[in-house]
Automatic annotation (TrEMBL):
Keyword line: Heme, Iron, Membrane, Metal-binding, Signal, Transmembrane, Transmembrane helix
Locations listed in the record: Membrane
Keyword hit for Disulfide bond: no
Species this chain originates from: Rheinheimera baltica
Protein name: Cytochrome c1
Pfam family, one: Cytochrom_C1
Claim: Cell cycle is one of the keywords in the record: no
Principal location class: membrane
Domain Cytochrome c: 37-208
Residues that span the membrane, as ranges: 218-236
Residues making up the signal peptide according to the UniProt record: 1-19
């Protein structure tokens, strides 16, 4: 419990120190924790593209497989690559010193990133990389300027670039920024890429609070119980006090 708390505090501190910048409109993430197909695909994307640098040291494989309806043998074959046991936490083998040397800072653990950043931030962030030759990894990000992270999904999206259009402004033709657009070299179309990012963020939202759906259902049951109890208590009170007056 304390480790989980420290992870949240570390992510909050990192947000304040590293992500200060101009406000950017955040797109609404299409979160649906009941969509098991989306969650399964999100887990696949994370394991194949994110786990090399980022860990989920407070989430176990076995819990993920059980919650996402992934048969254990299928999960071990397709989502576990370095001989881990199914009861292990989702970790990588990157040494912290090496990560600091390569990236300037160790990549944060992502167990609680959706709770700290919010799903809308993550959804917009993963769709806001753009080519920037001045940066060490050749990319920058509108949501997180000067980010020290490569665009790990670039082979899926293609090379994203800032695009401009010539428009008439105050009677003069000017180049106006209209957004980021991929160059078409990726494996996915723009719509498919957005759906892939949505699945990844959906999975991160689940990992941040695996019991969210159960907690909501339990909360509804408790409220129904209290309502019924209130009615019964009120009727009992009326019956008990009817002869007093």
């Amino acid at each position: 419990m304390m480790k989980n708390l420290f992870s949240v505090i570390a992510l909050v501190a990192s947000s304040w120190v590293m992500a200060a910048g101009p406000a950017v409109h955040l797109d609404k993430a299409p979160i649906d924790l009941k969509d098991k197909a989306s969650l399964q695909n999100g887990a696949r994307i994370f394991q194949n593209y994110c786990l090399g640098c980022h860990q989920m040291q407070y989430q176990r494989y076995v819990r993920t497989f059980r919650d996402l309806d992934i048969p254990e043998d299928v999960g071990m074959e397709n989502l576990m690559f370095t001989g881990e046991k199914v009861g292990d936490h989702i970790k990588n083998n990157m040494a912290t010193k090496d990560a600091e040397k390569w990236f300037g800072a160790a990549p944060p653990d992502l167990t609680n990133v959706a709770r700290v950043r919010g799903p809308d931030w993550l959804y917009t962030y993963m769709r806001s990389f753009y080519a920037d030759p001045s940066r060490p990894f050749g990319v920058n990000n509108e949501v997180f300027p000067m980010v020290g992270m490569p665009h790990v999904l670039q082979e899926l999206q293609g090379t994203p670039r800032k695009t401009y259009e010539t428009r008439l402004v105050d009677g003069e033709s000017k180049q106006v920024y209209v957004g980021i657009k991929a160059d078409g070299t990726g494996e996915l179309s723009a719509e498919e890429y957005d759906r892939t990012v949505a699945d990844l963020v959906n999975y991160l939202e689940y990992v941040g609070e695996p019991t969210k759906l159960e907690s909501r259902e339990l909360g509804v049951k408790v409220m129904v119980f209290l309502l019924i109890f209130f009615v019964l208590a009120y009727l009992l009170k009326k019956e008990y006090w009817k002869d007093v007056h």
